[in-house]
User: What shape does this take?
Amino acid sequence: MRKKKILQEAVFYLAVVLISMVVLFPFLWMLSSSLKTQTDIIAWPPTFVFTPTLQNYHKVFGEQDFLKYFINSTVVGGLAVGLSLVLGLPAAYSISRFTQKKLALFILLARLMPGISFLMPWYIIFSRLGLMDTYIALVLSHMLIALPIVVWIMSSYFDSIPVELEESAMVDGATRQYAFWAIILPMSGPGIITSVTLSFIFSWNNFMFSQVLSMEKTRTLPIAVYNFVSYAEVDWGGVMAAAVAIMAPAIILTMVFQKFVVKGLTMGAVKG
Assistant: This one.
C-alpha cells in the first residue's frame, strides 16, 4: 500500500514538472532571448550558453518612448476597468437577485463575439466623431472586453452571498440600494479583485483595437512592439525585451492577487 502511494505521488510530481516545463518554456525562451545578441538569437543550433547583455533593454527604454506607451496602456486599462465596475457591479447584482438570464446571455454573447466584428463600426463611428487616436475611443472599445468579465464573475459571486443579509437590512428600514452599497459590496472584495485583475490583464494585452483606433498619441504597449519590426529585418532582441516588459506587470499583478483570484473564481461554483 505504501509503495503504491509513493508511486502515485511520483507520477503526480512528474506530471506537474512536465506540465510546468511546457507552460514555462515559451516565457523562459523569451526571457533568455531578450538577453542575447541578434547573432545568438538566430543561431542554429540554438545557443544555450551565452554572455548576457542588456543591450536590448537599453533599446526598449532608452531609444524608444516606452514610458509613454506604458502610461497609455495604464490609463486606458484603468479607465476601462473603472467604468466597467461602475456599470457592471449593479448589472451583476440585478442579474443575480432578479434571475435575469436573458440579460446575462446577451452580455455573454457580446463577449463571445470576435472583437474584429466590432472593429469596423467602431472605426466608422469614432472617425466621424473625430475621436480617433483619443483615450475615449480606446476606453470604450476596451470596455467590450472588461465589462462582460466583470458582470459574469460578479453575478456568480453575488449568487454565493445569502440574500437574507440584505433582506434583514431592508426589514430594518434600509433601501435595496443602501443594502447593496453598505452590505453586499464590502463582502465582495475577492470577487471584485478577481474581475479587476482579469479584465485589466485582458485590456493590457489587447492588440487589435489599439492597432486600428490609436496612432502616435495613444499608442499602447502591444503596438509598441512594431517599432522593432522593419521591412528589411526584425530586431528579435528588441521584440523579446519589449515582450518581457509588457508581460511583467501582468505577471506581478496576478502573483500579488493570486489568492483573491482563486477565491473569487471558486465562490460561485461551490454554492449549495
Summary: The first helix runs from residue 2 to 34.
